[in-house]
TrEMBL record:
SMART domains: TPR. The lineage of its organism: Eukaryota, Sar, Stramenopiles, Oomycota, Saprolegniomycetes. It comes from Saprolegnia diclina (strain VS20). Pfam families: TPR_1. InterPro entries: TPR-like_helical_dom_sf (IPR011990), TPR_rpt (IPR019734). This is Uncharacterized protein. The keyword Amino-acid biosynthesis does not apply. The keyword Membrane does not apply. TPR repeats lie at residues 212-245. Gene3D superfamilies: Tetratricopeptide repeat domain. Keywords: TPR repeat.
Length: 407
């Protein structure tokens, strides 16, 4: 106490530490050391001493007074931080929350709020640290401070949904950051964790739906990695959750268009037409979709349908050179329905343009088909080879024929 009167805080703290070593169950000594810690700026150690004093003597007047002051000050700083967050002033909000945590370092509500501020400031590592602290504090308050780590794994525990939600939002933002940086594997890992947590949380709370944007972001990762079937599955799941979102339909359309191009390059024009039609159903404002489907109709001898698709493409993109050329080639067949373009007109191309591999494959298939039809419709003559060399007998008797031979 003499050192305290002389404001020699460090020496006083050493003596109090020695006193606590002698008797660690004296609440008064713990309260005194807590005040010394606060005086020296050791806020966390001071709060720890007050917590120990509270366990030893819950009705201690100093402890009750501290709890009351701490609650009012913490609530004031929390409200002030909320006002700064609404004003998008996250730096000031962070200062308020830091001070608030100095008063109550294990308040899950304050930790989650600060994690959201860190997320807005793109400090994802600090945000995840606060979320994990909030989770540990939540379980500690739920089961008691003396519950060891082993028992926490044994007992059926359920994390508060707000803690899970904030963690998933952080993982989602981290995935977006990785996607923008081109690190799609890391983005996919983060989205897998977020979606797995969302599925587990939604299974515990009836009526809670998973945010469809998680599936969009994971689908983007799959698409960037070339896993188009997995990307399409995620986009379709997102479409079921949000059927009117145009971004989802656009992504599905692009994948269907890609599938159509692969089939078109393999000369599977009927299957490619189905994929291009699916792309058009999801997004009917892309001229390339109509041009490629028109090409499928052209190779399937459906010139009227091809002309209609080329015409739609030219209306969507009046300056598109390819659409203009193809509309002009098929314009004379647009007036009559069901008219098939002549074969020479269908194959006409600029003399300087080399035939593509698809056109060469299609030409070979047409020639083989011609040979097959000719063999089927014009069967070869299998008559005797001596048919034309042996003349038929004249319409006379056999005796007259013998007399002619003798003469």
């Amino acid at each position: 106490m003499a050192y305290l009167g002389l404001t020699l805080w460090t020496k006083a703290l050493k003596d109090i530490d020695h006193a606590i070593c002698i008797d660690a169950n004296d609440a008064d000594i713990l309260v005194l050391r807590a005040k010394l810690h606060w005086k020296l700026g050791l806020i966390d150690k001071g709060n720890t001493d007050i917590s120990r004093a509270f366990k030893l003597c819950p009705n201690h007047p100093e402890v009750l007074d501290f709890e009351r002051k701490m609650w009012y000050q913490s609530q004031h700083l929390h409200d002030l931080a909320c006002r700064h967050i609404l004003g998008r002033d996250f730096a000031k909000a962070l200062d308020c929350l830091n001070s608030c945590i100095n008063f109550n370092a294990e308040d899950p509500k304050v930790l989650i709020l600060r994690a959201s501020v860190f997320r807005e400031l793109r400090d994802y590592r600090a945000a995840l640290t606060d979320v994990e602290r909030a989770s540990r504090s939540f379980f500690g308050k739920q089961f008691g401070d003396e519950l060891d780590e082993h028992m926490r794994h044994v007992l059926p525990t359920e994390e508060h949904p707000e803690i899970s939600r904030q963690r998933n939002l952080i993982l989602n933002d981290m995935a977006i950051m990785h996607i923008q940086a081109g690190d799609f594997e890391a983005g996919l890992t983060a989205m897998n964790q977020a979606i797995a947590s969302e599925i587990e949380t939604s299974s515990r709370f009836e009526g809670k739906a998973i945010d469809y944007r998680y599936y969009i972001n994971r689908g983007d990762c799959y698409r960037a990695l070339g896993k188009l079937q997995a990307a399409l599955a995620d986009y379709n799941t997102a479409r079921e959750l949000q059927p009117t979102d145009t971004e989802i339909h656009t992504r599905i359309a692009m994948i269907r268009y890609h599938f159509g191009l692969e089939l078109f390059n393999r000369a599977a024009f009927d299957k490619a037409e189905i994929e291009f039609s699916s792309a058009i159903r999801h997004n009917h404002k892309v001229p390339a979709f109509f041009i490629r489907r028109g090409d499928c109709f052209r190779y399937m001898d459906q010139s009227q349908l091809a002309y209609q698709d080329y015409l739609v493409a030219s209306r969507l993109a009046p300056d598109d050179a390819e659409a203009k050329v193809k509309v002009s080639q098929y314009a004379q067949y647009g007036a009559s329905e069901g008219v098939v373009a002549p074969r020479h007109q269908r194959r006409a191309r600029a003399p300087t343009t080399k035939p593509t591999s698809v056109e060469r494959a299609w030409r070979g298939a047409v020639q083989k088909d011609k040979a097959y039809k000719a063999l089927l419709n014009q069967r070869p003559d299998l008559a005797s080879p001596s048919k034309d060399r042996i003349q038929p007998l004249p319409s006379t008797t056999f005796e007259e024929y013998c007399r002619e031979l003798r003469s």
